Amino acid sequence: MRVFNFSAGPAALPEEVLRQAADEMLDWHGSGMSVMEMSHRGREFMSIHEEALTDVRDLLQAPASHRVLFLQGGGLGENAIVPMNMLGKRDVADFVVTGSWSQKSFKEAAKYCKPHLAASGETANGFTRAPKRSEWQLSDDPAYVHLCTNETIHGVETFDIPELGDVPLVADVSSHVLSRPLDVAKYGVMYGGAQKNIGMAGLTIVVVREDLLDRALSICPSAFEWRIVAENNSMYNTPPTYAIYIAGLVFKWLKRQGGLKEIEARNLEKSKLLYETIDASSFFSNKVERESRSRMNVPFFLADESRNDDFLAGAKERGLMQLKGHKSVGGMRASIYNAVPLEGVKALVEYMKDFERTRA
Ligand SMILES: *Cc1c(COP(=O)(O)O)cnc(C)c1O
Fold first, then answer.
1. What residue spans define the domains of the chain?
2. How far, in Å, from the CA of 231 to the mean position of ligand 1?
3. 136 part of the active site
4. Binding site membership for L-glutamate: which residues?
5. What does the pLDDT profile of the chain (360 residues) look like in tens digits?
6. Is the CB of residue 95 less than 8 Å from the CB of residue 136?
7. Which residues does the UniProt record annotate as the domain Aminotransferase class V (predicted)?
8. Which ligand 1 atom lies nearest to the CA of residue 195?
9. What's the gap in Å between 42 CA and the centre of ligand 1?
10. Residue 118 to residues 126, 155, 207: CA-CA distances in angstroms?
11. The CATH number of domain 15-257 is 3.40.640.10
12. Do the domains 259-359 and 15-257 match in fold?
């Protein structure tokens, strides 16, 4: 029996995708082998790779100015790979810190440059808001401005993406990429690990504006130098082939669902139902400012924290899994990525209401 999986990552995948992968496990399209066993430069895998790149460009509506790269190293790897690729002759980069992930990006960048804290979303209640552009205090000539557009742990999403003129915006989109249309043209760079909303761990996606490919520092490892990866069509070294294949199946699934507009409508419905349930209750609460509430990751707290273990045990009995909040924040967190169906959220809110009624 499949459960409803609210894990923050690695996270739920569409059942159709898992079934197709299972069907094709031993013999992909008459090749007599698994995708895992193929040469990455052979005709079969090349077709999988090209189709995945075409489909993700299509879903993202990526303009011709931007390259889509398949890399490895995850979101945290990019915290080093971004400065090594983006600093050029500059030694300052600006950071808008809205939660744990952008805080990590800020800290790691200090190994390569002088990071400048342009704005912080930290309040007396922790990270609960995305500072507006008018609050950002940019330095004079930063190499780029870094932003995490969805903070997975704190549940803070940035909806208002400003125009920064000549300064490239670099965004960690790990946990909300493909959850709704994003205007790729506004970003110099977007990056994200695949294991939240795209597919399985092992693949990292980087979308980079072509004119930014000449800024890499000489210390940047060749396998992570975006210009080299781009020139080799993400085949400079062996790419994470099976993770690319799974991502490709997810891209096809998204297209069958009607693309990102349709997915956004579903994600809105799911998140609205959950936040409305929390707000209507005196037992559950969410601390994030309304306009910054993430549609993908919903942290919430019980009024009586001594009931946390009860709540989780009861959820498990109903097949509602991985609801425990991140240890740095506590409480609960429901991650409701694309692959978590509306029925899963309905089952969760029914359970929350029952719990409040019978045991609160
Ligand atoms: C999960 C996550 C990361 C870390 O990704 P890894 O692949 O584990 O390195 C970074 N940023 C965000 C926003 C995340 O959600």
1. 15-257, 259-359
2. 26
3. no
4. 41
5. 899 999 999 999 999 999 999 999 999 999 999 999 999 999 999 999 999 999 999 999 999 999 999 999 999 999 999 999 999 999 999 999 999 999 999 999 999 999 999 999 999 999 999 999 999 999 999 999 999 999 999 999 999 999 999 999 999 999 999 999 999 999 999 999 999 999 999 999 999 999 999 999 999 999 999 999 999 999 999 999 999 999 999 999 999 999 999 999 999 999 999 999 999 999 999 999 999 999 999 999 999 999 999 999 999 999 999 999 999 999 999 999 999 999 999 999 999 999 999 976
6. no
7. 3-348
8. 7
9. 31
10. 18, 20, 23
11. yes
12. no
Structure token digits, residue 3: 């459960």
Other C-beta atoms lying within 10 Å of the C-beta of residue 263: 19
Domain over 259-359 is classified CATH 3.30.230.10: no
b/e per residue 194-222 (b: at least 16 CB within 10 A): bbbbbbbbbbbbbbbbeebbebbeeebee
Report the nearest-CA residue for atom 12 of ligand 1.
174
Nearest atom within ligand 1 for CA of residue 172: 13
- Model-level pTM? 0.98
Among 94, 101, 226, 270, the active-site one is 101
Is the distance from CB of 92 to CB of 142 less than 8 angstroms? yes
Q: State residue 96 phi and psi, 5-degree precision.
A: -100, 115
Phi then psi for residue 259, to 5 deg, are 80, -170
Q: Which residues contact 289 (CB under 8 A, 6 or more apart)?
A: 128, 129, 130
> Alpha-carbon distance 350 to 360, whole Å?
15
Where does ligand 1 bind, in terms of residues with CB under 6 Å?
9, 74-76, 101, 148, 152, 172, 174-175, 193, 196
Alpha carbon of 299 to ligand 1 centroid (Å): 17
Is 101 part of the annotated catalytic residue set?
A: yes
